[in-house]
Amino acid sequence: MSLTLKRNTEYMKTSHTCGFDGLLVKKRKSSDALKGSMKNMEVKRKVFNIVKLLLHHIFATPFTKMENDLVNDGNHHYFEDVLQKIEENKYEDSQQVFDDLVDILEATTRTKQEVNIMLLGNNGIEVKKITYSKEDVELMANQMRKKIYNLENNLFREELEVNQNEEKQDLEIIQPMDDLDKIFKTLQSRFPAVPALILMTKALDISLSKSLDLDFIRNELEETNKKYQPKFKSYKFFPSRKHDFNMDKVIHSYIAGYQFHKMITKLSNSPVPMRTILNMSDAIESITYIENKNSTESYEKQKDVFKNQGKEDENGNVEEMLLFHGTAVASLDSILTSNFIVDALPQQLNTQNEQRKKTMMFGRGVYFSELPAISLMYGNGLLLCKVLPGNCEIFKPKGVPPPEISAEYDSREVESNNSQGVIHVVKSPAQILPYCVVQ
Hints:
By secondary structure, this protein is an alpha+beta fold. It contains 14 helices and eleven strands. Helix 1 packs across helix 5, helix 2 runs antiparallel to helix 3 (79-87) and helix 4 (94-111) packs antiparallel against helix 5. The protein starts with a helix and ends with a strand.
């Protein structure tokens, strides 16, 4: 049994809705108050939202239909089937909906010895397989029965209280579960970075709570929001015959596009291979400008360090360059989030289907090129970066590998036979600011 399930077992055994040995007692109300007509659009909306939120509950997985179920004989029913029946107006009253939900729980625990679920990545390749034992499924079913039972009893509490005391004010009779969809949307607007699954689960918990500790909920979601907050902002632009020069950040796409087209046409007697680009004029599909506060602060601090060290040009400015870096597309997000890591291993595989080694043949550091055709030899993820070369050492290959970059230099420029800089080795990530992704 997993730690999560063990922890919840204790709660189940102390719950007043549970019977002997922690098993939930299935209770049915005969009162017409619990049999809202599904012809009433407000009732239908509430019930639909309840089932939708139940689908995303942490214990609902064994009872939901997933395209990647390892075992799906087509005869088993899932929570999604209930949603579909609601949409098709096949229920007369709300109790029939809750009966179907409970029947699904019972059928799953009765007929399946275990539940196997295979999680797939975006490329359709298996990422992870999850197996729930029969004991796990029974425990999860008990928790879901408890949720369903509470929802069933609370669904029309507002209407009952209004009938009993019409003088009560709206704020006095509103229950958190009065509009579950509204709870979810409120949380989503307040905590936009939190995944929808977490917010839906929290909305369902709020709807069932008799006393809310709003400060605890707020602090918990604020911490989760910080955890999932994007580390960088991105602005994506596409080539077009029409131009909106007032569009926010658009100037950066023009700079990146100009740099790419200017350098893609240059030929060089490079000491390393170059990629052939056949459709140079239409090579760019999109350009994404990147803003990362932490990387920018680190870059600006390094610029101040170079300035204080007197590493300036004749105009008193610290030299900056725009250089290309090629990498695996899968590595882009990590670089844009946390900047470069000098010793990070390449993601690509070699011809023997082994991870490609990082040779650093021109010294230790992060490798760039002025020529995108060279950078594209190392991956289809093409980054244009701002770079502070600092005190740069010039190196011309003569068939012998160079020594490591000495302490007096901040970078190394490898020149071709015609004295054109083709490779730049930058010693520190603080000298680099990812600027644009050229797709």
